């Protein structure tokens, strides 16, 4: 009689736990954003403790998620589109800034997924034609430079489909720079931090910075001797400028990426 009573009590307990789990257990349909103390249930946690567990994004950090959190609330990264084409320069015939953008596709990240990366990029630039299509006719002056990353977006073929002149590379030894090169903390000025006195830098001269029929870029120093002190200006931060001395002209730039730039 006693054993039958014990079996009946055990069966009732299992039925109660089963109903409790069906009613309250697991994270199915209970996934919540952020840290939500109301987003709870009663079930096994990931650390194998039975009791209150959470189904919110914060449980990943506090380590009190329900056992099926990753199954019922899978991480979703933020998805973004491809970059748009670069815009034109904000101002014609003078150093300014251009922009390219991308868009978020679908909902934001959730359940510990990767957040959206930057949706906008800016880069220093200079147009070589005005709004009426006329050639700007830049005069001799300092070398205007920007990040080599901007150069990757330049066209490699002309309007007729023929490949453009690949250009060349000038190597310089940096003599001086203004302190403002490291003061601004904006995405399109980070590359200026690597402009350091005494370092060798490589600057690519390629279309459209390469002057028509001249085979050179403004301020590249091809016609100067190696002792001449030449001036440069970082596009995107008018207060970042300095001097350098020409080392040599090469077909391709051999500097590390952080010390490689392009003429504008």
Task: Please explain how this structure is put together.
By secondary structure, the chain is α+β, with helices and mostly antiparallel strands. It is built from four helices and twelve strands. A six-stranded mixed beta barrel has the order 7-10-11-8-9-12. Strands 1-2 form a two-stranded antiparallel ribbon. A hairpin with a 5-residue loop joins strand 1 (40-44) and strand 2. The longest helix is centred in the first third of the chain and has 23 residues, at 2-24. It is elongated. Mean pLDDT is 81; it is low at 7-23.
Q: Which regions have little confidence, pLDDT < 50, spanning 5+ residues?
A: 7-23
* Range of strand content: 25-35%
Please give the count of helices. 4
Q: What would you call the structural class?
A: alpha+beta
Please, what is the average pLDDT? 81
Name the shape in a single word.
Answer: elongated
The end-to-end distance, rounded to whole angstroms, is 96 Å
The total count of strands amounts to 12
**H and E string:** HEEHHEEEEEHEEEEE
Radius of gyration: 31 Å
Q: What is the spatial order of strands in the main beta sheet?
A: 7-10-11-8-9-12
Proportion of residues in helical segments: 10-25%
The description of the largest β-sheet is:
6 strands, mixed, barrel
